[in-house]
Predict the structure.
Amino acid sequence: MKEFVITWPRKEWEQDLYEYYRKTELNRKERLKTQREQYSLYNFYKNLEDALDQAGIKHSRLFGSRYKVPTSIDKNKIYLSYHSSSPKKHPNVWHVHTSGSVGYFSVDPLGYSSFSDVAKSSHYFEDSQKVDLNVATEWFEFYSKKYIEEDMSRLYQSNYSSLDLNEPYVFIAGQLSYDSVIKQHSNVNGQQYYNKIAETFGDKGYKVVFKHHPTTYTDNKNQFYIPKHPSVIETKASIHSAIKKADAVFVMNSGVGLEALLHKKHVFTGGNCDYKWATHQIKHLDEINNAIDIIKKPVDTDSIIKYIYYLHNHVYVDCYDVDSIKRKIQEILNQ
């Protein structure tokens, strides 16, 4: 059986990981609230090694491989490469990253998010539509209710007041202009996309709610700005508060789009992403004009429910569930 090589972003994690994990259990509720993504990352690494141990599979650690695939590949080993991507599949390399859902990880033969095989191959969506709707619905309703009620999101949602708007509105979730998924996999220019949405819906009497990516307020690198249209309202309310009453949600390829699908909303994407198959994909700015009519029609909830269920139960890995990780390991070995 092939040995697994687990790439770790930083050498100091070797000691910090388990110390952090031990201390975290003492204040788990607070960690889950303010450091959800980091907490899930530590859990993934710990449970991955536990799963390999339980399966009797040898494994080792390789440090300093964040953003890049290891340069030397041993054909007798399987490499789990963190936060990386490849232009083509390699039988010995799988790419690991957090997904758009808290606690779930992508383990993909091409990369993460917009770089992933899931984002490039429609067969995942086609397969998802074959699942039993009743099974998918039972899981979806439980998961989405918990996710929304607990105000879960990859980034901490601060304690700003909820969005209280009783007029028709669409919601734009802003991203970072320098994000790799924006720079490499946008269908349209991000700022022009935001401006066009504001103009199109604002001129039709809608309010346009815009929320910056939270990192915008802690660095000076984000070049995206709030659209300059009188209909636009900036909010710092939590993602779920902003999504709740929106007639539609617009993203480029942010994980917020996946969260909006949990609300069963019309979601429009302006770039490549692994959940795009359940959204309205904008390839050209002029297509935003059609969105006015689209959002007046019922949402195809059956397709959304089946696809979200399939992603979480047949594609992603639950970092808190050792059995889920074991299944992915076996899937990799069976390739």
